[in-house]
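Researcher: Please predict.
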Amino acid sequence: MAAITLGFASCEDTSDLGIAQVNPQLPSIEIDGFSISGVPSSVNLDATVNQTIPVATVASEPGNLPEGSSIKLAMQVSNDADFVNATTFDVVNGAVSSDEWEDYILKSGSKSPAAVTNYVRFAAYLANGGQLTRLGGENTWYGATTVTVTPVDLRLDVESSYYLVTASGKVALEHSDAHVYDDPVFTLSLELSDDQVPYYWQIAPGSNENKLYGVSETGDATALEGSLVLGAQKGELAEAGKYTLKANMLDKTYKFEKMVAPDTEYLWTPGPATGWGHADNMLLVNKNDGTFGGYVYINEKFKLCAQPGWDPLNWGLDGGVMTPGGTDIAVDPSGLYYVVANFNDMTVGLTEITRIGVLGNFNNWANDEGGADVALTPNSTYNVWSGDVDFTAAGGWKFRMNNGWDLNLGGTMDNLTQGGADLSIEEPGVYTVTLDLSKLPYSCTVVKK
C-alpha cells in the first residue's frame, strides 16, 4: 500500500480540542497502510441529545507504528464543500459529541429542524508519548463525504400557518420560504372601506381556529402595534385605508402599518451596487398613481428609500410585502431590472432587462418575419447602452426592452419616458446611439458616423 508521510511536531501549539498543530518543516517517517471506515451517511441529532455519535473507526492500522504509539482522529465539519466555515470535533472512541454538532448547526445561522447536508472529513494523528503528529501533513484527509444531518427540533412556540380571523371569516397570513423558526414573521395586506370599520380582528394558528390571539386586556384595542395575548380581546382598526400586518408569532407581537405612498418625486435604491450609499442611485419616479417605477442596476439586493438617506422612510420585503425597515430585496441574477414599487398593494415588481434594442421605420418596426430590433450593448453596470444603428430610412423610432412592447422608451432625446412618442431621424445613415439610464430623466444621444 502507498506509504504515508508522517512529520513529528511538538504539542505546545494545540487547538481547543487538544489536537496539536503540525509543523511541516520537521523530519518525517514512512507509515504503511492506513484507512478508516464506518463514516455514516446520516445522523439524527434530535435523537441523540447529550450523547455521542459513532463516526469513524480505524479500518487498517499501519503495520510499522512506533512502539507505544496509537492513532487518534479528528473530524472536520462544514456546511460547504470548500470547508470555508468548518469546525473540528475531537473523535473519542470513534465518536463525536452530538451536542457539539448541534451547536455548530445553530452557529451556522439556522434554527430549522429540517435535515441539512454537512461535509465531513477526517485528520489522523500519531500519538506517541507527549507528541501528536499529523499523518501525511496538513492537507491529508480521510473519509471525505457528505452526511445528512437532522438537527435538534427546538420545539419553538410558532406554527407553520396562521389566519387573521374577523367577523366575515378568516384569511391566511403570508410567509416567506424560510422555516418559521428562522423567520417567525407572518404578513398580510388588507384594504378597508368606510363601511368596514371598525374592523375587529384576532389571529389563530392553522392547527386550531379556536385558539385565538388578541391584544392585551390592559392595552388599547385600537393600537396599531403591541403584544398578542392568547384569549385576549379583539384588536380593532378604527380607520379606513390600506394596511400591512406584520405578526411575529414567536415573540407574539403585531404591527399594522397604514399604507400611504410617500409624498416624494423619487425613490432611492441603495444596495451593494452603490456601496449601500445614496449617491448616484438609479431612481424610481413617482407615477402619481400610488406607484414608482424605473430602471435599476441591482447587484444581488437593494432597498427603497423615500429620501437620499435611511431615515425616516425605507422599505424592504417581508413575506412578499413591502415593509418599512424590511428585509433586503434580493434578485438572482444580478443585472438591470425595471422596478415597480406599488404602494397600492405594497408589492415590488421586478422585470429583468436582458436586451435593449432600437427599431422604427428603418426596419419596418421589426414586423417582418423573423424581424428583430437592433440590440445595444451595455456598460459594466448596465446603466448606459450603446451601439451603431443603420437607419436606412428617415422617420420614427424607439427603444424597447426584451424584444417586446411592455417596456419601451420614447418622447424626446433629453426626456425619455415609458410609452413616450416616437423619436425621429431626419436623414438616413449609420448612427451611434447611446441610451443613458443612469439618472432621471432618461436621455439618449444619436451621433452620425
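Model: The first strand starts at residue 3 and ends at 7.
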